[in-house]
Amino acid sequence: MKPVNTPARPLILHGAVIAVLFALNFLLPDYHHGVLARVMVLAVFAMGYNLLFGYTGLLSLGHAMFFAAGLYGAALPMVHLEWSALSSFGTGIAAGALLALAVSLLALRTTGVAFMIVTMMFAQVAYLLTLYFGEWTRGDEGLVIPQPQRHIALPGLDLDLTSPTTRYMTALVLFSAVLLATLAIVRSGFGRVLVAIRENEERTRLLGFDVFANKLAAVTLSGAICAAAGATYAILFGYAGATFASIQYSILPLLWVLLGGAATTLGPLIGVLLMYYLVDASGPLLEQYLPGWKLSSLGIVGVSLVLLVLFFPKGILGTVRERWVKWLP
Amino acid sequence: MAFGPHLLLAALEGLVTSAVLALTALGLSLVFGVMRVVNVAHGEFYMLGAVIAWWVASLVGGHPAVGFLAALVISPLIVGVIAFAAERLVLARLSYSPEATIVATIGMLYILQQAALSLYGPEARPVPPPFNYRILLPWFGYSGYKLSVVVASALLLLATWYVLAKTRIGLVMRATQYDRETAQAFGIPVGQVYAGVFALGAMLAAVAAVLIVPISQAHYLMGHDPLLLSFIVVIIGGLGSLRGTVVAAVAIGMADGIISVFFSPTLAKIIATLLVALVLVFRPQGLFGETAR
């Protein structure tokens, strides 16, 4: 009998996605090439969020703080201490992981609605802190990382991160690493425990698993991945501003994951990609047909959120998995 | 000005903030208490109340008091209808799952904000107060209107308490809150009660906004601070407890008034938000609330 769940198929699918993204580097016109680099970095942010929201079933409304921790964890040492890009990437991830560990030690004492509000409030504190320490962070105006600093010096190799191709490839390397790591996690024993917690926390505890420790690991890992996205964003695009710490950037990953499909490995990429082009394309259209209405992307975000929870709660890949492709991870 | 009068002025300002905050937070608390729905769009109903008040007052000519009184009646009614429709069209179809409703109300927040920006514009506009009377204290003059806001809020709070505790409407609401299924079995139209509660919560926010709009202007982004403060009040006061909500609103409003006179507002917000998050972590039933059943 042919096994229903061949382990090779997901690997081939994910390899194919990465190969297509690699090929697109040579095919895309300049504008879309730049967009896709950005989308891949934001998709890493969404994948980090998905690990917690999709697989563990914890709805956080404060993930902007982890993205911002990575963003500032990398940008502050680069601007003020003139550290190299690579070591700043490290401090960015460390900042995000530590913050996630500290926040989760407190926030995981709560469940359900209280967890959402507590994470939202901690993120609000983080946002206000970026404004309060405006002398170093330059608040809303933001930090600009000087071009000469944005390169990676390896022995015998110097990568200039301001060139579009290197930037795209760096984003792709990070994206592929996190995508394959997510795939490995959700297929591992740890990943299955997380799903078990989402489905029935009490029963998981009864079976002898340490629910708190597993959740703690999930939040910290999710925070570290989001911080990696933030740090990469700062280094590749040379900018860190307080907007990225605002509540809006806690809502966006939720929207991306809901749209692409929660608890699917490729859903975050699809969600970010669609949302980016939806906002991008609707801007001029709305301007053309409804001039003077001052419609912004936030209105589209609002309508999408309501429509998604009402009519399409499983998202694109969630629905595809339910109807047609049962083996989709 | 000496320290004493300065403190008195700060306390008076704090009292006005408390009064309006108590009304707004009561709306949020009621919706959470009965429906178990965290309404993130609550601040936008407040904003709508103020914006519609400006619209009504600018349509009605004559003495400012006429326009203001018209706004005080019409604005909450319109907001109530919008909230009722939103509940029936969106929240009711989500069978009140906590995750789905919070996502939906976030969506509503952006939709209402965007609609206000499109239809009302980015300007901040004032509504003239119904009367201009300054109460002369020995140290400074104080707006009589501001004090009347405190009195009006107190009366509205009493009225809400009366409706909840003494009337049949309140009885039906409490029955739904205690046990939804048994209430349904006794012939209570639970769906309509939920929609009514959601509308009532939004109307309380709208009334608060109409009262405050002659003091601070109507603006499409004005819903953010009331939302955050209401969250703080409801959490400190205990989710779904009316008395706790009022006590906490007075405490938070006074603290906000006094702290922002003497300290940096950003630092005050940071400390307040952090403290509230910790209250929610270590004492989820609130400082005044009872333990959850």
Automatic annotation (TrEMBL), chain B:
Q: Which InterPro entries does the UniProt record give?
A: ABC_transp_permease (IPR001851), BCAA_transport_permease (IPR052157)
- Note the superkingdom of the native organism: Bacteria
Task: List membrane-spanning regions.
Answer: 6-33, 45-62, 68-90, 142-164, 193-215, 227-252, 259-282
Q: Where in the cell is it found?
A: Cell membrane
GO BP terms: namely:
amino acid transport
Query: Where does it sit, as one GO cellular component term?
Result: plasma membrane
Keyword annotations for this protein, in alphabetical order, are: Amino-acid transport, Cell membrane, Membrane, Transmembrane, Transmembrane helix, Transport
GO MF annotation terms: transmembrane transporter activity
Q: How does it sit in the membrane?
A: Multi-pass membrane protein
Q: What is its main location?
A: membrane
User: Into which family does the record put it?
Assistant: Belongs to the binding-protein-dependent transport system permease family. LivHM subfamily.
Q: Provide the protein name.
A: Branched-chain amino acid ABC transporter permease
Kindly list the organism's lineage. Bacteria, Pseudomonadati, Pseudomonadota, Alphaproteobacteria, Hyphomicrobiales
